[in-house]
Structures are given as C-alpha cells and as structure tokens.
C-alpha cells in the first residue's frame, strides 16, 4: 500500500468542533438500490454518534453529482470512487476546466480490484494468452470496461470483447460461451463466488510492468491483492497482485473542521466491522487501508489520525 504524502491545504474551516451546537451533516450518496447506498446508511449511523454531529441526512445522487455536491457545499460529505474524485480534483474528463476547489479525501473504504478469471484447466495462463479470445468486460460505461479497452490497446492485444451484465456473464461463462471475464470485483463478489463454487477457476495475473504503469499514470489506483479472503472462493486456484480503486469518502474542506474530521475518521476506524451490514465485503477490509493514497489531498484532521495509528509517515 502506498502511503499518503499530501496534506490538504485550504481555507479556514467554518465553525468549531467544540461548539455547543451540533452540526447537521449532509452526505451525498449513491441512488437507492445501488451498492453505495447501504454503506452510506451504515456510515451515517456511526457518524451521528460523533460528538458535535447532529443529524446526518443522506442525499442520493451518485457519480460525479456527489463530487459536485460536496465541492459546492450542498453536502458536507460524500461517497464516490477514487478515480472519479481524482478526475474532479485534477480537472480531468468530465471535470475538464471545472476542477473542484474544496474537495479533499477523508478516508477510503473497500476497493474494487481488477481481476481476470478463466477456467482453471483452459489454455489461458498469462495476460498475452487473452489475445483472440472472447472476454467479457461488462456493460458500456462501466469504469472497468474503459480500463480494459485501454489495457488491451496498450499491450497490443486484439480480442473479442463482450459487454455482458454480470448475470448474463455468469451463465455464458458456465456454458463455455466466453473464455474469460475481466472485472473489478470487491473482495466478496457474488457472481465470482458462484462460479468458484461450481467449477475450478483461476485468476490471470497482470504483468508487473502493467501494474507499475497503471499506478504511475493514475495515482487514484493502489496496489493490492485479490481476493483478500480466498476461502470465500472454494475452487479458486490462486490469488494475484493487482490494482484497485476504492470507494472513498470525500469532504468539503471549508465545512468540516480538523477536529471534526479527526473524530469522524476515528469513529469509523473503531467501528469498521459495523459497516459490513451495508456491504459484506468490508468483513475482509484491512482497516489500515482507510489511509490508502488515492491521489488527492487528504483532510488534515484525518491525516492526524492516520499518523497516530502509524498508517502513514
């Protein structure tokens, strides 16, 4: 895990943590029914117990809308993917010429990790072996689909890239109609568990130079292992070193004081297993990965807590 080295700079925080009046917090979350919403519900229950916090209101949005809401102060906190937060702070992609001014990283949660699964007894053993094969990468618009196209293009690998939803991909994999599946699962992904329960599968490792290049090009990624708990996948034959991008909690630097950020981060770290009610993947989450570097400035209050725990230098 790369450790954080950037301290968020910004204008003076508004209000004081020690104030007798509790501050109500708006939390920009994903849409109801999406994977981020139940985690946000569990987070809100923890944060509401932090001294100085009043109510925590969930504001469903998702995607870039959460980043914009936090930047504009419409929500004090929000959840998003690290690569989206990075684009916002750096003014990339949909944020071109519209870089955020107030968004900082508070802490990271469970990651989504690039994994390529294939039948264990098949001919695909290495990344190069994917050439010419029928590989699913998920529907158009998914982050992993874009990443897969980039990876294969850079490695000059031509293949038959499919864009199946996870449910359809599971059946096509079982029937032998696709040769493999590149995806960004969490450590506990039901479709992969289903496949690994009924047949022998293996994970194709990314070449070391590909991992290094990805980390250099996009600091919102981090080096990790998939899966964190191999026992969840009974007939999976190996684990791999890969890259991941986590759900990250962002904050408005002007709205959340240093003491409040410290208290919030501490409360979540001390109650991290409670979040598994929102997403079982958090059962396998290493709490020190809250401090993973996602390529954007970190709130000084959160950074103080990470340093106290020895998670960053």
Protein topology:
Layout: E1 23-29, H1 36-47, E2 53-60, H2 64-71, E3 77-81, H3 82-90, E4 103-113, E5 115-119, E6 134-136, H4 143-154, E7 160-162, H5 166-174, E8 180-183, H6 190-198, E9 201-203, H7 208-217, E10 222-226, E11 240-252, H8 258-270, H9 300-309
Helix pairs in contact: 5-6, 8-9
Could you name the key traits of this structure?
D-Maltodextrin-Binding Protein, domain 2; six-stranded mixed β-sheet; 9 helices; globular
Walk me through this protein's architecture:
The structure is a single chain. The radius of gyration is 20 Å and the shape is globular. The strands form two sheets. Strands 1, 2, 3, 4, 10 and 11 form a six-stranded mixed beta sheet that branches. β1, α1 and β2 form a beta-alpha-beta unit. The protein is α/β, with parallel strands linked by helices and 313 residues long. It has helices at residues 36-47, 64-71, 82-90, 143-154, 166-174, 190-198, 208-217, 258-270, 300-309; strands at residues 23-29, 53-60, 77-81, 103-113, 115-119, 134-136, 160-162, 180-183, 201-203, 222-226, 240-252. The chain folds into two domains: 23-110 and 246-309, Periplasmic binding protein-like II (D-Maltodextrin-Binding Protein, domain 2, 3-Layer(aba) Sandwich); 113-245, 3-Layer(aba) Sandwich (D-Maltodextrin-Binding Protein, domain 2). The protein has nine helices and eleven strands. The relative contact order is 0.22.
């Amino acid at each position: 895990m790369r450790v954080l080295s950037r301290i968020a700079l910004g204008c003076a925080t508004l209000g004081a943590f020690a104030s007798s009046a509790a501050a109500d917090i708006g939390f920009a979350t994903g849409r109801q029914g999406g994977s981020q919403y139940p985690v946000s519900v569990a987070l809100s229950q923890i944060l509401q117990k932090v001294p100085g916090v009043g109510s925590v209101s969930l504001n469903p949005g998702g995607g870039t809308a959460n980043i914009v809401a936090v930047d504009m102060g419409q929500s004090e906190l929000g959840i998003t993917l690290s690569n989206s937060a990075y684009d916002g702070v750096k003014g990339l992609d949909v944020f071109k010429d519209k870089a955020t001014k107030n968004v900082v990283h508070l802490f990271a949660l469970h990651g989504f990790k690039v994994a390529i699964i294939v039948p264990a007894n098949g001919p695909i053993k290495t990344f190069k072996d994917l050439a010419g094969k029928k590989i699913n990468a998920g529907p158009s618009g998914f982050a992993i689909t874009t990443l897969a196209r980039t990876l294969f293009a850079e490695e000059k690998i031509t293949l038959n890239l499919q864009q199946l939803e996870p449910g359809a991909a599971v059946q096509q994999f079982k029937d032998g109609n696709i040769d493999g599946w590149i995806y960004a699962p969490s450590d506990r992904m039901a479709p992969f568990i289903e496949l690994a329960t009924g047949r022998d599968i293996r994970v194709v490792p990314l070449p070391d130079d590909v991992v290094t290049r990805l980390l250099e090009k996009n600091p919102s990624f981090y080096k990790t292992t998939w899966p964190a708990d191999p026992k969840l996948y009974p007939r999976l034959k190996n684990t791999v070193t890969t890259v991941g991008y986590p759900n990250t909690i962002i904050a408005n630097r002007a709205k959340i004081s240093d003491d409040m950020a410290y208290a919030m981060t501490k409360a979540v770290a001390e109650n991290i297993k409670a979040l598994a009610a929102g997403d079982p993947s958090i059962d396998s989450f290493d709490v020190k990965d809250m401090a993973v570097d996602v390529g954007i400035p970190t709130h000084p209050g959160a950074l103080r807590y990470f340093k106290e725990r020895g998670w960053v230098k």
